[in-house]
Here is the input.
Amino acid sequence: MRQTKKAKTVSRILFSLLAFAFAGTAPSLAQSYPDHPVRLVVPFAPSGPNDYLGRLIGDKLGALWNQSVVIDNRGGGATVIGTDVAAKSPADGYTLVMVSTSTAVNPALRKRLPYNTLKDFVPVVELATSAGILVVHPDSPFKTVADILKDAKAHPGALTYGSGGIGTATHLSGELLSIMGGVKMTHIPYRGAGPAMVDMLANRISMTFGAVQPTLNYVQAGKLRAVAVSSLKREPWLPDVPTIAETLPGFEAVGFWGIFAPAGTPPQIVAKINADVNRVLADPEVQKQLAKQGFEPVGGSSEAFGKHFKAEMDKWGGVIAQAGIKKVD
Here is the structure.
């Protein structure tokens, strides 16, 4: 018994010494970070909202830190390739990764992932959100969500909606509309949002959910008609266009973007990045640039982002299961 107590006492002393030593180095970790360039992996090809957001935030952080933030575009595999690169990088704060709705959807959509989305990363900060725009061709008879649902109920499967591919935000928004509206529509997947928009402009499909840019430009030019937005509240860039939720209460299909770091990244560094990104997002000039692209800045704590990310995983995983979408390799 005496030996056990002695062992426990020694363990407590060693633990206290280690804790004291770590506490002594903790401030220096945050104060000296970063002392060389930081890599921000963007798991998409250059161009598009992910790349735009990554470069905007990266440039501002670089100026704040007096260190370069290097954007490393690693497209392919519906974000899996780039995300895996980050998962296998040192957990020292010098490799970060942009995550989005696609990252949250992949665990439910793909048969296997080379990383564990929740265990291999730590949330750092949420950057922004952005609603989608449900659009039809100007020659379409549909002017409201109610018009679409009425026709879809009368002619199951006849209406088509295009998307940027299986499991994309534009696809799942359409599935959510079908589920909540109690209708059946036919999904037409394309190899990216661009080709889907080409056919939408040519009136070859009934409707699509488009990102704010460039969809808003087409609406303003009269080339497309905005039926509704996918957020819970009306948007300042289309104040007269209703939300889908005004017809289907609770409907929300809003994209989000944020930053993860490899699991094991020192919490002091995570806290510093979080604080500095929040500082960047509070900059009026940054907010102005984000608004032009249809982004709404978020910020907040890493814990809050972690909860939101998990909620999005659960939500879209449920939609995928209810819609019967088969997992892909």
Notes: Residues 38 and 94 are 5 Å apart (CA to CA). The mean pLDDT is 92.
